[in-house]
């Protein structure tokens, strides 16, 4: 919805004070230059009939940012920025590895000098040995260029490494939003607690932590349960949870939690 590929059924999506779903014409074009996207599968998100030169230069062509020699020079600069050789620009996507293809996708997203890049599971289709390289590249680019990253992922270790703030969602609703360190160390929502307890142990001192096993199966997102959507699997649920939807309210540690009975940090 932020990049304009889908429209919200209700509510608004604001970017820099502008309602994304209501922007048209020149305003929408400016918005698309400011918000770019890196897709999950680098192979299917790159046109197999185009060379790397034309793939990375496509945003430059759409927005009229560079032509001729300046266009080629800009592509060379972007490839070097993501750790690829400019000599590769005459090749096609199938001639690259998965990690290299994702770097090409990142270079294309950077072409318009955006202020925000939406990264939709950008490493889940890559080998584990390559994932860290791409995640570190994104973190370096974020710090170097001052770009905001909206990083969507299920890998909790990757999220923790790359994020300053973390939003946890369940069946399409925000369960918890706060600073990464706070959310990971002292979860405020029962679903966040269960997620973190299922993550692999990173350090021997974590071996004694409690394992939270959720009961039952996840409800259908097409027909979610009434009230708090997580109540059918929550061990803390009470009668009010099945009838009233809790608002996202301030909780301890600079974060907000949508729960009638949020967890309190352990001393």
How does this model look, in words?
The chain has 267 residues and is an alpha/beta fold. It has 2 domains: 37-163, Rossmann fold, CATH 3.40.50.300; 182-257, no CATH class. Helix content is 33%, strand content 14%. The chain has helices spanning 25-34, 52-62, 68-81, 98-110, 128-145, 156-162, 180-185, 190-197, and strands spanning 14-15, 18-19, 35-38, 116-120, 148-152, 165-170, 173-179, 249-251, 255-257. It has a 4-stranded antiparallel beta sheet. The chain has a 3-stranded parallel beta sheet with strand order 3-4-5. Strands 1-2 form a two-stranded antiparallel ribbon. The radius of gyration is 21 Å and the shape is globular. The mean pLDDT is 91.
Task: Provide keyphrases for this structure.
267 residues, Rossmann fold, 4-stranded antiparallel β-sheet, 3-stranded parallel β-sheet, 14% strand
Summarize the structure.
The protein has 267 residues and is an alpha/beta fold. The chain contains eight helices and nine strands.
């Amino acid at each position: 919805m932020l990049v304009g590929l889908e429209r919200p059924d209700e509510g608004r999506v604001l970017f820099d004070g502008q309602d994304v779903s209501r922007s048209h014409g020149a305003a929408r074009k400016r918005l698309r230059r400011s918000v770019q996207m890196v897709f999950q599968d680098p192979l299917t998100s790159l046109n197999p009939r185009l060379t790397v030169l034309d793939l990375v230069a496509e945003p430059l062509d759409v927005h009229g940012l560079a032509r001729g020699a300046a266009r080629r020079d800009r592509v060379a600069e972007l490839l070097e920025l993501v750790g690829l050789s400019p000599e590769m620009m005459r090749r096609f996507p199938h001639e690259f590895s998965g990690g290299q293809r994702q770097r090409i996708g990142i270079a294309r997203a950077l072409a318009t000098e955006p202020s925000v890049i939406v990264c939709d599971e950008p490493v889940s289709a890559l080998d584990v040995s390559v994932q860290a390289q791409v995640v570190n590249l994104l973190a370096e680019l974020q710090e170097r260029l001052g770009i905001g990253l909206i990083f969507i992922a299920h890998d909790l270790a990757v999220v923790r490494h790359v994020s300053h703030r973390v939003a946890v969602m369940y069946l399409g609703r925000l369960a918890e939003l706060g600073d990464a360190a706070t959310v990971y160390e002292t979860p405020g929502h029962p679903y966040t607690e269960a997620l973190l307890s299922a993550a692999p142990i990173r350090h021997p001192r974590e071996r004694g932590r409690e394992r939270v096993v959720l009961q039952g199966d996840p409800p259908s997102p097409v027909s979610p349960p009434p009230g708090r959507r997580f109540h059918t699997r929550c061990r803390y649920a009470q009668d009010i949870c099945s009838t009233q939807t809790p608002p996202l309210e301030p909780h301890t540690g600079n974060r907000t939690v949508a729960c009638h009975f949020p967890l309190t940090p352990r001393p």
